[in-house]
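User: I'm preparing a small set of examples for a lab meeting where we compare how different chains pack in three dimensions. I only have the primary sequence for this one, and I'd like the structure in token form so I can line it up with the others. Please keep the answer compact; I'll paste it straight into my notes.
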Amino acid sequence: MVTFEVVEYMTKQWVVYLSGEIHSDWRERIVTGAAERKLKVEFVGPITDHAKSDDCGVSILGAEENSFWHDQKGSGINAIRTRTLIQSADIVVVRFGEKYRQWNAAFDAGFAAALNKPIVTLHDTELNHALKEVDGAANAVCQTPEQVVEILNYILMSS
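Assistant: Understood. Below is the structure token output for the 159-residue chain.
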């Protein structure tokens, strides 16, 4: 006789990586919405203090006169955090904002796709065409943080 162990998804603490745009309150809206629904979710993500993120390399490893090497030091250190957290995440949510080009968010989405992680993209409809390949790799495409919360709520339901 074959027996199967049933995993109860409501008891699992899911890890959700929140990638992308850092200039609006979308992360807080998702975290608050999940807390209001008492979802068993741990949210992780990049350092969202722009200056701290940009300057971590030179703050730790020493100043650089050339901006290229300044950025290389910071991006290398930030990549340790980003790659490690995406690898351990159950779901990756990637937010693309309208004001800045988020090349890092696109890279995170590609990295998550390469790891076969479930991806939820979040952006305004005006970016649909520009993000068609990224959205094509996503499991869901949302326009609001509240839609992301509803997806999390749905997938974490016990029945």
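A couple of notes for your slides: The longest strand covers residues 14-20. Helices lie at 26-36, 50-61, 67-88, 103-114, 132-137, 145-155.

User: Perfect, thanks.
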